[in-house]
Give the backbone structure.
Amino acid sequence: MEIELLHQAPASSSKGTILLLHGACMGAWCWTDNFLPWFAEHGYDSCAMSLRNHGNSPERGKLTFRRIKEYVEDLRITVEKLNGPVHIIGHSMGGYILQHYLSEPSAKVGKGVLLCSAPDHGSWGLVRKLIREHPFLYAKSNLTMSWLPVITEGGNARQVMFSQHCPEERINYTMKHIRDESFWAFLDLLGLDRPDPKKVQRPLMIVGAEKDYLVPLKDTLKMAKTFGIEPYIIPGAAHNFFMESGWEPTALEILKFLEH
């Protein structure tokens, strides 16, 4: 299986590799206007992958039944193709996958960054919020085994993924590229297949967004406490902050973490 891997090389010699791992319903495309070129400009081989059944990666069975452990295997296969040291940045579900992977990482892996990551203790904070604020759409998602109603219906895209000042064209661009997510992977995110923080073998940075709808701030803080890490919280930011303006200071903080 040939996983989609976008690559942007640095202008001069490489400091190593940055691998960007997308979240639920997304693909490698979500990094092309921001982190992918930025880390290349700062001296890294910058790569973004698409998990199976996402982006331009091949279909492997019906999407509904894919599991987090399969996505972990996609990450493992991709890392082995890259030149070390490999630093991995996982967003949302990608951060949850990264937590699993770092329990048995390749020797070439350096550091990891959990970016608005689904928490190790399960995404029940989001479930409670959806039941309270969008009970019909949440029920529809469960009945149809599809995550899309929560994101795409009722004008929810801005509320759940972006800030109130995000340009409409950026949201429309995302909606044209977004796809459904595995229902079984969602169950894994709830705790059916939880990572074990005690087994994580590499240095971690945890980045949270103050106004994140999909990963409530209290979940990020709880996860950071579990890992014993002081999190970097972005004031006023939403879940997909890196697709909006003003992401560069956070990228710079990540760069400082990777290089010190």
